[in-house]
Design goal:
With 80 residues, the chain is mainly α. Helix content is 86%, strand content 0%. The chain has one domain. The protein contains three helices and no strands. The mean pLDDT is 79.
Length: 80
């Protein structure tokens, strides 16, 4: 019985630990991408400039890459 409680506590701690890892991993990936773009701009400005133009086009585009599910539900409800 005691072993079951210990294993459940370990599982709970593991879930909490892994849920904290996601934002940290995303932050690390963003830092790596920003550093790579910065270095690419120094080493090869023409390629870095082209990539930055693509990023600006994607970020400034009116059309979303992924439709927000809340907007879909809101539009459906408003039509009713």
């Amino acid at each position: 019985m005691e072993n079951e409680n210990v294993s459940q506590e370990e599982e709970t701690e593991e879930v909490v630990r892994t849920s904290d890892d996601t934002p940290a991993f995303q932050a690390v990936v963003c830092i790596i991408i920003a550093t790579a773009l910065f270095i690419l701009n120094i080493v090869s400005p023409d390629i870095g400039g082209d990539i930055m133009k693509k990023v600006r086009n994607f970020s400034g585009a009116e059309q979303e890459l992924f439709t927000n599910p809340i907007d879909i539900v809101e539009n459906y409800i408003s039509k009713l």
